[in-house]
Amino acid sequence: MASSNAVQSEVTKLPSSDRFSLLPKIINGGIAGIIGVTIVFPLDLVKTRLQNQKPGPDGSFMYRSMFDAFRKTYAAEGYFGMYRGSAVNILLITPEKAIKLAANDQFRHWLAPPGKPLTLIREMLAGAGAGLFQIVVTTPMELLKIQMQDAGRVAAQAKLEGKTVPKVSATSLARELVASKGLLGLYRGVGATGMRDVTFSIIYFPMFARLNALGPRKKDGSGIYFTFLTLTSNISYVFILLGDAVFWCSFVSGCAAGSSAALAVNPIDVIKTRLQAIKKSDAEVEYKGVVDCFMKTLRNEGPLAFFRGGACRMIVIAPLFGIAQTVYYLGVAERIMGVKK
């Protein structure tokens, strides 16, 4: 009889050294990233501006809500303004998503004991490895994207004060950073980026694997999955699931796992965004690092500041990872390359 003390559910794909092919997974990850980020980028821009805004002298904020930020941005900058900074993001999202998704699969493949399922700890280690690998590409991409996205907020604030600020581009920002601080200038905020991405991947990938394994399977024999359900210390059940999950199951699983992980790491994302943002004026607070940013934000704005933009981030991440996982598991690259999935 099933007990209410269910403590563990472990899901894994049966490892096979001759089945795993890394190159098509990298290509699938790149395609998935481009499609996903193109669809959700305007929401990501709004999220960045909500997280980075500070109260004015009278205590008011430029944007009152996600919808207010969207409306004001669209009114001031038009349709293409909603895609400010998207060029660098779309360019770099290909290797970023390719590394993240393919690296997780590769680590799961290496960590899976022959003929045995991955434990939760090993799944979390695989996710941590994927998150750590991706920051090589993610940090410069996020830095340039955030500075481009925040440039519109800075320009709007300057206009309200009767000032003007010069327009910036991703190329000019990159040149300025490299010229003044060398290549390391592109890795400003790398500590916070690493904390966010590693933590996100530790939560996201195991959750996605378990949710994805619960749904209906394709009937094409595209894989063999073992689901181990431990009900008590003495009662365990093993279910064998034939075939990959149907596409809508991967989409829903990606959305659910992505939004949950996004909310969990939102405080780290707020810190990362502020460390990488443009300095607006001499009166604006500057941060020396992760701890300094945390303490100043907590002292000046309270704990709720760490969840600013959280709902918007969940709305961004949910479809982004839902779309990415769906495209990734459709196996477009395998079909093009003639590789057996």
From TrEMBL:
Compartments where found: Mitochondrion inner membrane
Ranges of the Solcar repeats in the UniProt entry: 20-110, 118-214, 245-334
Regions that span the bilayer: 26-46, 224-243, 305-331
A Gene Ontology BP annotation from the UniProt entry: malate-aspartate shuttle
Listed GO MF terms: L-aspartate transmembrane transporter activity; L-glutamate transmembrane transporter activity; symporter activity
Membrane topology term: Multi-pass membrane protein
Catalytic activity: L-glutamate(in) + H(+)(in) = L-glutamate(out) + H(+)(out)
Keyword Secreted: no
UniProt KW keywords: Membrane, Mitochondrion, Mitochondrion inner membrane, Phosphoprotein, Repeat, Symport, Transmembrane, Transmembrane helix, Transport
Protein family per UniProt: Belongs to the mitochondrial carrier (TC 2.A.29) family.
Functional description taken from the UniProt entry: Responsible for the transport of glutamate from the cytosol into the mitochondrial matrix with the concomitant import of a proton (symport system).
Protein name: Mitochondrial glutamate carrier 2
Classification of source organism: Eukaryota, Metazoa, Ecdysozoa, Arthropoda, Hexapoda
